Amino acid sequence: MKQRILLASMILSFCVSCKKDVNNNALSSTTPLYALITGDSSLSVYNAAVQKSGDSKLFTGTDSITVLIPTNAAFLSQGITLSTISAMSQGQADSLVRYHFLNAPAHLVTGSYNSFNSLLGPAVYGFGNTDGSNNYFNGANAVLQSLAGSNATVYKLSEPLTVPAASAQQLLAADSALSYFAEALKVTGFSLAPASGWSTVLAPDNNAFIAAGYPTLASIDSANVNTLTSLLQYHVIAGQYFSNTFSGMLTVSSEEGGSINITASNNSVEFTGTGNTNPALVTGADRIAGTNIIVQKINEVLLP
């Protein structure tokens, strides 16, 4: 099952001070969109974030916008409750709301991801069909919500979206469970940033490194640099792979040159290296770093 870092802490990694507002030409507190947010009991956590942020005005206009709304169940799957929202600062709640708000219709293209600018600034990536089936944003399943009498388009999300980190270094520094992986990058000087296009990184957590024979950070520091570099390269895949895009794939080539086996079913993904007995499970999915890196946290070191 995909898991993400606690939303309150991840928002701290990208919180902008300047606000961008939509063109609210005709304001009404009774628009279908605002009525949905305030009246649907399954969206009460999101509504709490809207009220906390002071962004209610965004939802009372008549513009053609797209709003991505995590349900209460989506928030709860990540341990986020009304109390979590209450404990946020206004700025944190504002970042949450604005990253899920697109100031234009999201015209999805069948079978591929396309970028859409969020009101926060960083892009959101959408995948799916215009008929509302098989839709995803940043790897989170999205269900088109009918909203009669409105120019707005609403998708209910299975998970809240993680605000992108400014860089891979920032993302890793914010997650203490990836300190061994960060140390390996430091020791080798290996960069996760692709020369062009996108990279998808399968990042083993600390326990995975310990189980693979690196019991301490010092053991990573003393490891053979060439061996460690090859190991890191084996965990990098050229291309943009959110969780759902692995569906139907059996193998994928790594930057090291070897192949990685894939098992994808029921919205879960497992990876197995050529030298592995146990598959690696995704424990933190679809986290964006910068503008062209996706990090999938896994619980095993993949062996070529």
Descriptors for this entry?
elongated; single chain; 304 residues; 14 strands; 7-stranded mixed beta sheet; FAS1 domain; 11 helices; 2 domains; alpha+beta; disordered N terminus
Number of strands: 14
Q: In terms of per-residue confidence, which ranges show pLDDT below 50 for 5 or more consecutive residues?
A: 1-20, 22-28
CATH topology of the largest domain: FAS1 domain
Order of helices and strands: HHHEHHHEEEEEEHHEHHHEEEEEE
- The SS-based structural class is alpha+beta
The biggest sheet, with number of strands, parallel, antiparallel or mixed sense and barrel status, is:
7 strands, mixed
Shape, principal axes of CA atoms: elongated
How many domains make up the coordinates?
2
Query: CATH-wise, what's the superfamily of the largest domain?
Result: FAS1 domain
CATH class wording of the largest domain: Mainly Beta
Helical content stands at 25-40%
| Widest β-sheet, arrangement of strands | 2-1-7-6-5-4-3
Quaternary assembly: single chain
Calculate the mean pLDDT score and round it.
90
Which second-level CATH architecture of the largest domain applies?
Roll
The rounded distance between the terminal residues' Cα atoms is 25 Å
The fraction of residues assigned to DSSP E strands is 15-25%
What can you tell me about this protein's structure?
The structure is a single chain. By secondary structure, the chain is α+β, with helices and mostly antiparallel strands. It folds into two domains: 7-157, FAS1 domain; 168-298, Roll (FAS1 domain), CATH 2.30.180. Helices cover 27% and strands 23% of the residues. The chain has eleven helices and 14 strands. The strands form two sheets. The protein has a seven-stranded mixed beta sheet with strand order 2-1-7-6-5-4-3. It has a seven-stranded mixed beta sheet with strand order 9-8-14-13-12-11-10. The chain starts with 6 loop residues before the first helix and ends in a 6-residue tail after the last strand. Mean pLDDT is 90; it is low at 1-20 and 22-28.
